[in-house]
Amino acid sequence: xxxxxxxxxxxxxxxxxxxxxxxxxxxxxxxxxxxxxxxxxxxxxxxxxxxxxxxxxxxxxxxxxxxxxxxxxxxxxxxxxxxxxxxxxxxxxxxxxxxxxxxxxxxxxxxxxxxxxxxxxxxxxxxxxxxxxxxxxxxxxxxxxxxxxxxxxxxxxxxxxxxxxxxxxxxxxxxxxxxxxxxxxxxxxxxxxxxxxxxxxxxxxxxxxxxxxxxxxxxxxxxxxxxxxxxxxxxxxxxxxxxxxxxxxxxxxxxxxxxxxxxxxxxxxxxxxxxxxxxxxxxxxxxxxxxxxxxxxxxxxxxxxxxxxxxxxxxxxxxxxxxxxxxxxxxxxxxxxxxxxxxxxxxxxxxxxxxxxxx
Length: 359
Fold this sequence. Notes:
CATH superfamily of the largest domain: P-loop containing nucleotide triphosphate hydrolases
Distance between the termini: 19 Å
Low-confidence stretches: 327-333
Number of helices: 10
Structural class: alpha/beta
Number of domains: 2
Strand order of the largest sheet: 6-7-8-3-9-10-14-11
Order of helices and strands: EEEHEEHEHHHHEHEHEEHHEEEE
Largest sheet: 8 strands, mixed
Shape: globular
Radius of gyration: 21 Å
CATH architecture of the largest domain: 3-Layer(aba) Sandwich
Number of strands: 14
Mean pLDDT: 87
């Protein structure tokens, strides 16, 4: 667990995504952009979701919260939210009225572009107040304004900036306003869709530290979406790696960073400079992500994988525990606890695992 993410988590699930599938397009030839994706977010946990652009990270977030715009269609799956009273509800089966009351109150989202999410012609104070009153029908407006000022102060912005328009705020301040808006009703789950992509590294760290401090204080759980695995190591308890609309690896954050098992995870880590230690040349990942409209049989990563085998081109690997874990060259032990990998290299009887994937 990282230094920023030091809060103790429990194994009690607050959000469970089960076999979620999404198509883009109608008719007989849709594009399958998510295929049977399953994830569990535990109470108080920060779950990182990483992968290249176009792998399905944002689609997963929008589908799970029913914000997916046409032509996106959810074709199967469940999204189970455990309420504060212990009852579980499938978000995909809620009526429109039930969904409106659940959004922002139980599940909130910080979108990628704050300038695109905030209304440019209204002051940020009005936008905060209107959001609060939409869910707190009987609350006096004066009380909602006090709550808005409290929220800005909570994210490190002076209350007098309530009268500012979005364009009068810096990029970091706008993103903090979005975080304040998302936390206005003290949700159980906060989904952050690449919230620091357009910010400089100093502001990125300030916002991440702010979110982690608020998580410790308020007790919400976080799904943090980004393409930067090294950033997730700083904040996440667990990391799930996505590729071509599927989860290909899932493990504790430190394990993914120090001992990646899937060749794609290893390639992602080689695409970013190391946080510590000597300099090294960035290796990257050769080739391009597959065309989801014409996905070849077998492993979606086979065409780019340096360890591809014949079985990879014909049989699609199943996400599951590693058949063994190597503690050194030629040393095999029992399967790793909490580690899931979709790779034939780690299947039972596959033979020696490359050293880079068996440290």
